[in-house]
Write a structure and sequence with these properties.
Length: 588
């Protein structure tokens, strides 16, 4: 069990951190792959339960595991890969005690959660908090309010997420809204996590990637996983330590009498996936926690950090017992050819409660005939319309124009830039703490780039004091795809495309603001552009960055400090922003 301790009761109004150095060595468990059934959502879930505290204890330790046959060092939660499913209702309080018994510091980011009123629980190292040093512990405590849908959590300490610290987080809507907003009925509800998979520790790969003389050559993943599983042929990789004994591809047992909701999450570091299920159409019904009117498609393109729900309906003709699910990495984006690369990972769908005579292994099903996209592009979401209509603001208070690029400057170092800023993270001096320490003067500054507290060449920080509307236009001067993620918010996607953005993009009446798609991660294609808008009403310091792990570590990001006038009471100690973590040895 991953739930070491759990209790239920009324949601607490006080939000605080419990910090305690710990020197107790917990016995190291034998690392294992997570059972398939752990990612099936509770079939009799009480959507209308009173707000409840859901409490977990996670022990972070170093392990060695072979998810696809190749043994590699990993960093795991309670010895199991991937991480445990968190399932809760809107309005619940989550309490997660993290005990770090690994060799390096760590931090958990709750991807897509607003953290309204608990910015210091966002888990973003160098922005909202310091990491949890080895031998120490930290308690994340926050309410999930004002949102529902499919989310996930991952380490936000360097590239550690690709070493195993990832897992799904599902928030159910109350008052019957979940089934009401999902316009296609379904019975079973389950998680499908896609990820690229490396055989070496992220720290080793990152050192190579950021070394002098490399022109943004991101490490190419040799493999991919579905729910942490794959099976490679050991003979193809004779120089690797490999064993496939006891391994199997992911298997999804589905009802042959009803539809199934699959919550697709790309938890990978780099690769975009094209997902399909042989001989099945499916309908997209959710995008990053936003329920949308169903749209039928054959293939789903999903970039890192994005989430989609699809409703899988039964095949129109005779149902076969077994079908292939195929997830292909879009290799056109890769910088070089990796001889170890297997670009496709497969899983099996099995319909049960049908009088099949024999389940033929492997599945005897067929790929869709249409050619596969070779460009790294966001899914065409122009026809996806949110079920709950919200009109985007027609005018904006702040227009931020950004140029995204990779440049080689001093010491032959290739780094990511937004305009002339390459973001540098100081793990022991988070931006939130710096802002609070100088709050009296910072809050009196005019809205805009804060040059008094932060060097914009290394830390581009744009601040606003009151509720305002912010529009961001990013023009990509790089040939790579960049999925940009905004912490603490969902934004309206007002436009995206190839080449230069239209010159009249700011003119009134040009944009369709009636009910644009709302999400927290949108991709900007190579040499393309992206236009987003959001109402900045959530107090805190929020990261805005490319979610390709290698790119954010190379500096492709910035921070928005929004609604600063409400942060005056965050004196840094009584509110529990975790300053004690910053003084411990090993935070780097």
């Amino acid at each position: 069990m991953d739930l070491f301790s759990a209790s239920q009761g009324s949601a607490l109004l006080g939000l605080f951190v419990v910090f305690r150095p710990t020197h107790v060595e917990h016995p190291r468990t034998i690392a294992r792959l997570r059972p398939e059934e752990d990612y099936i959502l509770h079939p009799t879930w009480d959507f209308d339960a009173i707000p409840t505290k859901r409490e977990y204890t996670w022990i972070i330790q170093d392990h060695e595991l072979n998810p696809d046959g190749m043994w590699r060092p990993m960093v795991l939660i309670n010895g199991t890969f991937p991480g445990p499913l968190i399932e809760c209702n809107e309005g619940d309080e989550l309490v997660v005690h993290v005990l770090n018994q690994a060799s390096n510091a760590t931090s958990i980011h709750w991807h897509g959660l607003y953290q309204n009123g608990t910015n210091w629980m966002d888990g973003t190292v160098g922005v909202t908090n310091c990491p949890i040093a080895p031998g120490s512990s930290f308690t994340y405590r926050f309410n999930v309010t004002g949102q529902s849908g499919t989310y996930y959590y991952h380490s936000h300490m360097s590239m550690q997420a690709s070493d195993g610290l990832v897992g799904p987080l599902i928030i159910h809507a109350r008052d019957g809204k979940e089934k009401e907003w999902q316009k296609v009925p379904y019975d079973q509800d389950r998680v499908v996590m896609l990820s690229d998979h490396y055989y070496d520790l992220s720290s080793e790969l990152l050192a190579q990637y950021l070394a002098p003389g490399n022109e943004n050559e991101e490490p190419v993943p040799p493999s991919a996983l579905i729910n942490g599983r794959n099976v490679r042929n050991c003979s193809d990789l004779p120089n690797r330590k490999c064993s496939t004994i006891g391994l199997a591809q992911a298997l999804f047992d589905l009802s042959a009498t009803a539809s199934t909701r699959l919550r697709i999450i790309n938890v990978g570091a780099f690769a975009e996936f094209s997902l399909q299920i042989d001989e099945h159409e499916f309908q997209v019904t959710e995008v990053d926690g936003t329920d949308v009117h169903p749209q039928r498609i054959h293939r789903l393109n999903i970039t890192p950090a994005q989430r989609y729900s699809i409703i899988l309906t039964l095949p129109r003709e005779n149902i076969k017992g077994l079908y292939w699910m195929r997830a292909r990495m879009i290799t056109h984006c890769f910088a070089y050819e990796n001889p170890e690369l297997q670009e496709e990972v497969w899983a099996t769908l099995r319909y049960h409660h049908q009088p099949f005579e024999v389940d033929v292994l492997p599945p005897q099903t067929h790929d869709w005939p249409e050619p596969i996209e070779v460009e790294c592009l966001d899914l065409n979401t122009t026809s996806l319309s949110p079920i709950l209509p919200i009109r985007a603001p027609e005018n904006t208070d702040h227009f931020i124009s950004l140029r995204a690029s990779f440049q080689i400057r001093d010491w032959r170092l290739s780094r990511g830039y937004l305009n002339d800023s390459s973001f540098y993270t100081n793990a022991s001096a988070p931006i939130l703490h710096t802002y609070l320490d100088a709050y009296d003067s910072a809050s009196a500054m005019a809205d805009g780039v804060n040059t008094a507290l932060f060097d914009p060449d290394k830390q581009l920080v744009f601040q606003t004091r009151t509720i305002s509307t912010i529009t961001i236009l990013i023009q990509n001067f790089d040939d790579g795809n960049h999925p940009f993620h905004l912490h603490g918010y969902k934004f309206f996607v007002l436009g995206q495309g190839h080449g230069y953005a239209p010159a009249n993009i700011q003119d009134a009446g040009v944009l369709d603001v009636r009910n644009p798609l709302r999400r927290d991660t949108a991709s900007m294609e190579g040499f393309g552009w992206l236009l987003i808008r959001f109402v900045a009403d959530n107090s805190g310091a929020w990261a805005f960055h490319c979610h390709v792990g290698w790119h954010v570590e190379a500096g492709l990001g910035m921070v928005l400090v929004t609604r600063g006038e409400r942060m005056g009471g965050w004196d840094g100690r009584e509110e529990g922003v975790g300053r004690e973590l910053c003084d411990l040895r090993g935070v780097w």
